[in-house]
């Protein structure tokens, strides 16, 4: 119950912009919608939370443990493979069109990073 309340508070946080953008990627936090080059993507709630977190921290390497704690919550028990699986699913959605380069990078031995578009 505590983890759910924390997750709701995290989602309702007003300390940042309502819409996060990185090139053609747009993450609308209040509407829980993601658009890539004008096309709406259908994501699970966890995929959305993970993508929003990475988009909020563009260019920053985030380790699996940090992602588990910040996206899934400290009370939830998962492994780093959970993060790997969700990142793979996001990559499949984000790289659906060949015109878009890889936005989610693996930093070997460290974790994942959302690349700044065009950089």
Automatic annotation (TrEMBL):
InterPro entries in the record: OmpR/PhoB-type_DNA-bd, Sig_transdc_resp-reg_C-effctor, WalR-like, WH-like_DNA-bd_sf
KW Metal-binding (keyword) present: no
Transmembrane segments: none
Coiled-coil ranges (or none): none
Limits of the OmpR/PhoB-type domain: 17-116
Gene3D superfamilies: Winged helix-like DNA-binding domain superfamily/Winged helix DNA-binding domain
DNA-binding region positions on the chain: 17-116
Swiss-Prot/TrEMBL keywords: DNA-binding, Phosphoprotein, Plasmid, Transcription, Transcription regulation
PROSITE patterns linked: OMPR_PHOB (PS51755)
Record's keyword annotation contains Acyltransferase: no
Short name of any one Pfam family annotated for the protein: Trans_reg_C
Listed CDD domains: trans_reg_C (cd00383)
PANTHER family in alphabetical order: DNA-BINDING DUAL TRANSCRIPTIONAL REGULATOR OMPR (PTHR48111:SF4), REGULATOR OF RPOS (PTHR48111)
Protein name: OmpR/PhoB-type domain-containing protein
Source species of the chain: Deinococcus aetherius
Source species taxonomy: Bacteria, Thermotogati, Deinococcota, Deinococci, Deinococcales
């Amino acid at each position: 119950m505590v983890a759910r309340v924390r997750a709701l508070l995290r989602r309702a946080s007003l300390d940042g912009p309502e819409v996060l953008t990185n090139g053609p990627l747009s993450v609308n936090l209040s509407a829980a919608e993601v658009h890539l080059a004008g096309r709406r993507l259908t994501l699970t709630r966890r995929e959305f939370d993970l993508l929003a977190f990475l988009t909020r921290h563009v260019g920053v390497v985030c380790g699996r443990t940090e992602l588990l704690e910040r996206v899934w919550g400290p009370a939830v028990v998962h492994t780093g493979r959970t993060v790997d699986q969700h990142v793979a699913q996001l990559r499949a959605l984000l790289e659906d069109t060949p015109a878009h380069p890889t936005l989610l990078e693996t930093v070997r031995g460290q974790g994942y990073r959302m690349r700044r578009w065009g950089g």
